Structure formats: C-alpha cells, structure tokens
Amino acid sequence: MAVNYGTKRLATGAHYGLRDWLAQRVTACLMALFTIILLAQVLLSKGPIGYDKWAGIFSAQWMKFLTFVVIISLLYHAWIGIRDIWMDYIKSVALRLSLQVLSIVWLVGCAGWAVQVLWRL
Amino acid sequence: MTDHASIARAKRPEFRNINAFSDLPTYLLPPAGIVSILHRVSGAILFVLMPFIIWMFDTSVSSEFSFARFTNLFSVGIGAVPGWMFKLIALAIMWSYLHHFIAGMRHLWMDISHDAVTKEFGRSSALVTLALGSLLTLALGAKLFGLY
Q1: Is A106 within 8 Å of B61 when comparing Cβ atoms?
Q2: Which of B31, B55, B86, B140 could in theory staple to B126 by disulfide, Cβ–Cβ 3.0 to 4.6 A?
Q3: In the CATH scheme, what is the code of domain B36-144?
Q4: Domains identified in chain A and CATH numbers
Q5: pLDDT tens digit string along B103-127?
Q6: Distances (CA, A) of A3 to A6, A9, A10, B128
C-alpha cells in the first residue's frame, strides 16, 4: 500500500475505510424504513388527504422520533455522496475543499430547517 | 496490484480519432453503468432541491393556512410562474427519489448476497431498476397532473 501518512499524508479525502461506507448503508436502511412507513400510512388512510390527516401522521411522538433520525441520516448520507462526487470530479484541492465546505453549510442548514419544522409540530 | 496486471484479458476495442457519427452512437454504457451514473445524478438533484423539499414539508404540516399555500403553489403557481412548472419540479424529485431508492436497494442486495454479484444479475437488475423507476414515475406523474 502506498504511504499516505507523515509528510505523504493526503490533506483531503475520505476516511479510507469501512466507516463511511457502512454509515451510508445504515442511513439508507433507516430512510428506506421511513419511506415505507410513511407510504403505508398514506395509502392505508381512507378518503382524500387534507391538512389534518397529513399533519396527524407527523404529530405522533414515535413518528417525530423516526423523522428526526431520518433527517440526521439524510444529512450524513448526502454528505458522503456529495463528497464522493467532489472527490471524483474536482481535481483542484482548493476548489474541492471550498465545495465541500459549501456542501456542509448547505446540508447543516437544511437539516436545521427540517428539525425546526418537526419540533414546532 | 501486480496480481491484477498478470490476469490475461481479452483485447478491448481501442478508439482513436473518434468519429462523432460512427463511434459515438455505438459507444454506450451497459445498463448497470446507466443505473450507476443515474444513481449519482438523482442524488445530486435531491441534494440541490433539498430546500424545496423541506419547504414542502414545512408548509404542508405547519398549519391549515400554510397547507393552502402549499396546494396553491401547484394549482395556481406563484407570481408569473404557473403551477405546472412546480409540478414538473415535483416530478423531477419523484423520479430522483424513486430511482435513487430502487438503485440503492439493488446496491444493498448486492452487498448482502454473493449470488447477486454476477454480470448477468448486474444487467437484469439494472434493467429492472430502470424500468421500475420510469414506470412508477409515469404512474405518479399522471396522478400529479390529474390524468386519473
């Protein structure tokens, strides 16, 4: 294996290991579970879905719990995916780091907004 | 690395001076490759449209008043932008989610099962992924635009 520590250490990149790979799959499973549960609640409800029914789905405490977990999962999952895209296509370290920072800002901001909406309910 | 290089491989076609008319139309990704790049594209679309997705979540659950704003966006639109434009954006989100979901399931299946890691399964599951994603998008899109 090539030396990538000491002075040869790469300044940017992934964690060169299992952690992010596994995290992306675990978070994917959680979001898939959420999707199926949400879809089931929508499909099993009778009649047209108005505000009461729709907001009612998210007002149950266990659903809030799951939705919160999914928001955090999405944050991490999307970070790994977007970071992979920058790492694959952007060769300039300065530009890549800038894009990675912007991605984090974008994702954390979005997650904060979603959590704010959830906790208002 | 050295093991890799020593394996005898079939000679692959070499392209020099690519002709746009004779070479490009025949140079196609296999279905698994198409699914793979679309997995990336759909993920990027969802990443870019995330504020709109959260806006929809926000307005649709916050109050009855905001729920009306949410439905109005798609029926009336906002300012000079007609509602169907937002329906198209919603359709893009639907396709992206469906494709990303199904392609992701295919990935997980290949992680779990060694039987699934073959050239044949890669091809057939890729075709199923593309078909299922497109058909579900068409079905939901027809519903979205009020065809049934």
Answers
A1: no
A2: B31
A3: 1.20.1300.10
A4: 17-120 (1.20.1300.10)
A5: 999 999 999 999 889 999 999 999 9
A6: 8, 7, 10, 42
